[in-house]
Design a protein that fits this description.
Rossmann fold, six-stranded parallel beta sheet, globular
Length: 566
């Protein structure tokens, strides 16, 4: 079969289970002789080694790249972002689907698969490509993640839900890795048919078993967010590390702003550790696939304290390498683990600390469970068997596609609160495009003007600032320059470390939306050499804490740094 996949995530570029799953299933299909295509956004060079042999990759420029290259005006991207994150994601899905249409028109696909999260395939469900069945893989949607992260639901969140639920209701086929995620999803939206339950394949290397080192680190892999159990693990660490004085813990994955009360989860975990224990906890950030495998081999065990988990690829990959798992009960990985790991009561930090101490301290038991996990993985996760089941599922979806209902009929079960929430971002986009005042009086531009006014009051002259970040938020922000330029204020440059902003061969800086972009390291060198650097404003709404950390060196050297969102 010829099968296409959509993903916004990619191992080594944007960490997440969806990206890891997509690469794994595409690789397994290619090994069995099928033609697998992955559509994603442009990858950094260091993520390219993760492209599996036999898999055809289609890299699509995202909105930021299109603004940078001049393919679309900054104001156009800003109009999309004016509708908020949900419409921005829909726009990103449209870019991927447009590329799918072009390829499908030349050489048709037998089926296209997209995740419900971020609703990437929705544009093709709204406006189908001839003869292209669409299946939705249910991973763990935004509503489940909010509940797991104990975040309130805003009207804007309901737009996320509407888009994601629509990809479930209108799909020609539904699949999921475990029944647990189906039960969790049905809590929010009625699922019209019983999805196929097929675990993802995991590459199983032909290696002999190596027992884990008895004093290796305990490994956590995933986003540092509540739904993944990062807070729970943070609460369990003081007790566990005190009881096991030789133990260390390594976190792999990006930070998040889901700490209690908001803010950086990494900072929250560190702050709740006694100072004497902090050197035994390392935060390694995002890692490449090879680096993760090295960490797994060096680890004694893996901890998966998730509050919700559809199916943990981390669990599967750990077991494949013979690393036992301490995991929450009542999550999607329980059936996979069987009796090869140790389960604790989900959400209970004391029980988690006990389970970690029990497994880490029992060296003989640890070695036995490791061997059992190694052997079980080769039975339960056999890629050939999983691919056979998946191909049968795709064939059924193709039959369903011939009887596809009109889109409006398919989404009739969409919750009314979600459907009505779409009106607000549509009004905001329309207002932006028509030049009318936006419904919100606190747009990014008005926030920046307030900061510039503060700088002017302190210096007695119009402000000149650098924006940290050259992406979609900055495109949205620069489209409002009419708010500050008549007052004499200026945005004199941008700071961004993405490889696409490397200096050209002639030494000239790259530009984004007509503004020069300089890497942070170059500016720091200039600052240390005595050059004066203007105040910096963080141009982000979702990654403010991470950007704040990245500007620590500037702040230490006396450069004022401002947050747009406080």
């Amino acid at each position: 079969m010829r099968i296409g996949f959509l993903t916004h995530q990619w191992p080594g570029a944007l960490m997440g289970g969806i990206g890891a799953y997509t690469v794994a299933i595409a690789r397994a299909l290619a090994v069995q002789g099928h033609e697998a295509h992955i559509f994603t956004f442009t990858l950094p060079l260091d993520a390219r080694p993760n492209i599996p042999d036999g898999v055809i990759l289609h890299e699509v420029p995202d909105l930021s790249e299109r603004v940078h290259s001049g393919r679309i005006p900054a104001a156009t991207a800003a109009a999309l972002v004016a509708g908020g994150e949900p419409l921005y994601r829909l726009a990103m899905g449209a870019l991927l689907c447009d590329e799918v249409r072009a390829v499908h028109a030349h050489t048709p696909f037998d089926v296209l698969e997209g995740p419900e999260f971020e609703a990437l395939a929705l544009p093709l469900l709204l406006d189908p490509a001839p003869g292209l069945p669409i299946v939705t893989h249910i991973h763990s949607g935004s509503a489940i993640n909010r509940e797991g992260n104990q975040q309130p639901t805003t009207p804007r969140d309901l737009v996320f839900d509407a888009l994601e639920f629509a990809t479930i209701l209108a799909a020609d086929g539904l699949c999921a890795p475990a029944m647990q995620v189906i039960a969790s999803t049905r809590h929010f939206v009625p699922i019209p048919r019983d999805p196929a339950i097929i675990p993802p394949p995991v590459e199983i290397p032909s290696v002999i078993f190596h027992a884990p080192p008895p004093d290796g680190p305990i490994l956590f892999i995933g986003r540092l967010e509540r739904v993944k159990g990062a807070e729970l693990l943070g609460r369990a660490l003081p007790s566990f590390l005190t009881r096991c004085p030789t133990a260390t813990v390594h976190f792999i994955g990006p930070d998040s702003s889901t700490a209690p009360g908001g803010g950086s989860m990494q900072q929250w975990i560190t702050a709740h550790l006694p100072e004497a224990l902090r050197p035994r906890v390392l935060f390694l950030g995002q890692q490449t696939r090879d680096q993760i495998d090295e960490e797994l081999l060096a680890a004694s065990l893996v901890v998966i304290p998730s509050l919700f988990e559809s199916f943990s690829l981390v669990c599967a990959e750990a077991m494949v390498l013979g690393r036992p798992v301490v995991a929450s009960n009542d999550i999607g990985s329980v059936d996979l683990i069987g009796d090869t790991g140790l389960l604790f009561q989900r959400g209970n930090a004391d029980f988690l600390a006990d389970a970690l101490a029990t497994m880490y301290s029992d060296r003989d038991g640890l070695a036995l469970l490791s061997k059992c996990a190694f052997e079980r993985a080769r039975i339960v996760l056999d890629p050939k068997h999983i691919v056979e089941r998946r191909i049968a599922f795709y064939a059924d979806a193709a039959i369903n596609a011939r009887q596809r209902l009109p889109f409006a009929t398919s989404i009739a079960a969409l919750p009314a609160s979600c459907a009505s929430a779409i009106l607000s971002p549509l009004i905001e986009v329309t207002s932006f495009l028509s030049g009318s005042p936006l419904p919100s009086t606190r747009t990014p531009g008005t926030r920046l003007v307030a900061i510039m006014t503060e700088i002017q009051a302190a210096t007695d002259q119009p402000a000149a600032v650098l924006l940290y970040g050259a992406g979609r938020h900055t495109a949205r922000l620069l489209a409002e320059k009419n708010l500050w330029e008549p007052r004499g204020h200026r945005v004199v440059g941008l700071i961004d470390d993405h490889p696409r902003f490397a200096r050209a061969a002639n030494g000239m800086p790259a530009t984004y939306a007509g503004v020069p972009v300089t890497p942070s390291a170059e500016l720091l060198n200039n600052l240390r050499a005595g050059e004066e650097i203007p105040p910096i404003v963080l141009s982000t709404d979702a990654l403010q804490e991470q950007f704040w950390e990245k500007t620590a060196s500037f702040r230490t050297l006396g450069v004022p740094v401002y947050r747009l969102y406080t």
